[in-house]
Amino acid sequence: MSLELHLAGKTAIVTGGSAGIGLAVAKALYSEGVNVAIAARNQERLENAVSAIQSLPTPGAKVIAISADLTQAASVDTVVSTTLAQFGQIDILINNAGSARAGSFLDLNDDVFLDAWNLKLLGYIRLVRAVVPHQKNRRDGRIVNIIGGAG
Length: 151
Known about the structure:
There is one protein chain. By secondary structure, this protein is α/β, with parallel strands linked by helices. It has one domain: Rossmann fold. The chain is built from 4 helices and 5 strands. The protein has helices spanning about 20-30, 45-55, 75-85, 110-140; strands at about 10-15, 35-40, 65, 90-95, 140-145. It has a 5-stranded parallel β-sheet with strand order 3-2-1-4-5, with helices on both faces. The chain is globular, with a radius of gyration of 15 Å.
């Protein structure tokens, strides 16, 4: 179902795009005619997501999968450079990667909090820093950060 948001021809990066909210966002953007780069850690889930997205009717949009662990700065660079190489622009960034591990605050060890910090905060910050210069050069762009209830 198209919402007719006049986004055809734009390019989006959707992190966490292989499942859940990220996949739903990627499908919606693709259905609007947006070229979509989905990034996630699990290659098999990425491939399944690409197949699911490509099965949707679209006015000429494309989708690519980028295997990336966004807790790593090098992966952020790979996501941005691959998207630019494939599509030449980044108009939309949807930061949606990962989920914080659930549990009792008093029972979770420091590693759980550090993992969430590295992904949900530093990963998002790194992506924003990498994308904003391209959006500024184009004098246009949108960034949406999805944290989640456990954030």
